Amino acid sequence: MPTRLQDELPVSHVRYGVLGMLCVLSFILYLDRVCISQALTDIQSDLKLSHGDMSYVLGAFTLAYGLFELPIGHWGDRYGSRGVLARIAIWWSAFTMLTGACNGLTMLIVVRFLFGGGEAGALPNAARVIARWFPPQGRGPAQGMIMTSALIGGAVSPMLAQGLIDLPQLGWRGAFAVLGLPGLLWAAAFYYWFRDDPAEHPAVNSRERQLLEASRHASTEHLRVPWNVTLRQANLWLLGGIVSCCSFTTYLFFSWYPTYLKQGRGVDADTTSWFAGLVLAAGACGSLSGGFLSDRLLRKTGRRRVRCVIGVTCLTISGLAMGASQLFDQPGAAVACAALACYLIHVQLASWWGVVSDLSGRHLGALFGLMNSMGLLGAISSQVFLGHFVDWLGTFGYVGRAQWDPAFYIYGGLLLLGAAGWLLVDPEHSLIEVQPKSAIGKQAP
Fold first, then answer.
1. d(C-alpha 211, C-alpha 12), whole Å
2. CA gap 177, 173 in Å, rounded
3. Is 16 exposed, middle or buried (0-12, 13-18, 19+ CB in 10 A)?
4. Is 13 helix (H, G, I), strand (E, B) or coil?
């Protein structure tokens, strides 16, 4: 009788509460990451820093993010994500606040480097939580919700940051102090409520526990990555190069775009915050819709090649849109082109994820980490490049649009290079399956 009642018990949905907490985490993550883009001109004016100086400040964050993503992500495997994520949120929130206390270039670089090191472990540990709290068929949509929440946080960040900067009692320094508070509140709430093991959470009933236990065994097997085979695969380097070309442009939107609108286009600070947020909101829409588009076309055609077609089409149009944005004198039209580019970049990233998942098999975590690190090379290069490029043109007397616009053709050109990379990707050729010598080169089962 007790067993029958247990079978009739509805499944609890604590896992969706966990997903909600992780979505809030990613929202705050990008809120604090992107806010410096809106404050750049105020920081430069106050601390007497050049664009080249600020490129090192921006690059310090991205460098630390790349260096510490793997080791801090591994802390979750070793110590559990509950304590690690709480400490990560406290760490990055503290250094968000300390950004407002910086009094020069050296301190700013150090603080932003440590800020990046703190943020680095957040998304890998969030992925670990999803793997423990969701069955395999629910993990993809959950990861999509987390990334969409992150981009929404990035879209809100410029407007919120500018609103705080405009307050006479705050300015840019006080704005960073306020923006550091949500992460501290999240850390306290998460540590109090969350449990690493679903079986230990008091609100998880037996039905939900059985659902999660049944799918856990498939994700706990540790397999050695066949690097001798994998590193010789053209697909690995093509997909890594594609995401690097995309990161080169997306980090323009994360860092320099508000400054470009102010100094290159002469847009006032309040309007700039809305324009910059619009571009990142378009990216959030692309991230959300891209997965549905990729899956629908794949089901309709039954051919994996359709994901490559999406990649070629989206990056080609986005590259042309970046170049076309410089043909308009009206800032609104230029922003619309940039928003289209950002939207299409994130649409094709869903296809990139799909191809990487198909080709990586059981080694998705390791191979995604490797290719994501290649993307960070593009991110760092973008931030350092633009600051020095604008300063270099300034030495020849160029100002305003003439000082900024030429860089957009380079950004557009790299997106077209990424589109060319998609033409060479073979979505049927596995990256990792070790087979008998006679079978190497054939599609893995």
1. 10
2. 7
3. middle
4. coil
φ/ψ of 226, rounded to 5, equals -80, 75
Q: Judge whether 344 and 321 are in contact, CB under 8 Å.
A: yes
Is residue 283 a contact partner of residue 250, using CB atoms and an 8 Å limit?
yes
Domains of the chain, residue spans: 16-218, 228-445
Q: What angle do CA 363, 364, 369 make, to 5 degrees?
A: 110
Lowest mean pLDDT among 201-215, 232-246, 296-310: 201-215
For domain 16-218, the CATH architecture is Up-down Bundle (1.20)
- Greater model confidence, 407 or 12: 407
The answer to whether 45 and 109 are in contact (CB under 8 A) is: no
DSSP of 95-141: HHHHHTT--SHHHHHHHHHHHHHHHTTHHHHHHHHHHHHS-HHHHHH
Q: Is the pTM of this model over 0.85?
A: no
Q: How far apart are CA 418 and CA 244, in angstroms?
A: 8
SS3 for 430? coil
Radius of gyration of the chain (CA): 23
| CATH H-level superfamily of 228-445 | MFS general substrate transporter like domains (1.20.1250.20)
User: What CA–CA distance (Å, rounded) separates 280 from 153?
Assistant: 9
Per residue in 289-324, is it b (16+ CB within 10 Å) or e — as a string?
A: ebbebbeebbeeeeebebbbebbbbbbbbbbbbbbb
Instruction: Read off the pLDDT of each residue in 168-178 and give the average, rounded to a whole number.
Output: 95
- For residue 262, name the pLDDT band (cuts at 50, 70, 90): very high
CB 278 within 8 A of CB 155: yes
**pLDDT (0 to 100) of residue 201:** 75
354: its two tokens: 């799909």
Q: Reduced to 3 states, what is the DSSP secondary structure of residue 312?
A: helix
Judge contact between 9 and 205, C-beta under 8 A. Answer: yes
Q: Which is it for the CA torsion 358, 359, 364, 368, positive or negative?
A: negative
Can 16-218 and 228-445 be said to share one CATH topology? Answer: yes
What Å distances lie between residue 35 and 29, 149, 300, CA to CA?
10, 16, 41
**Which among 371, 376, 324, 320 has a CA at the least distance from the CA of 345?**
320
Q: Tokens at residue 5, please? A: 């009642």
CA distance 379 to 199: 40
> Residue 145 and residue 5: Cα distance in Å, rounded?
34
pLDDT digits (tens, 9 = 90+) for 25-34: 999 999 999 9
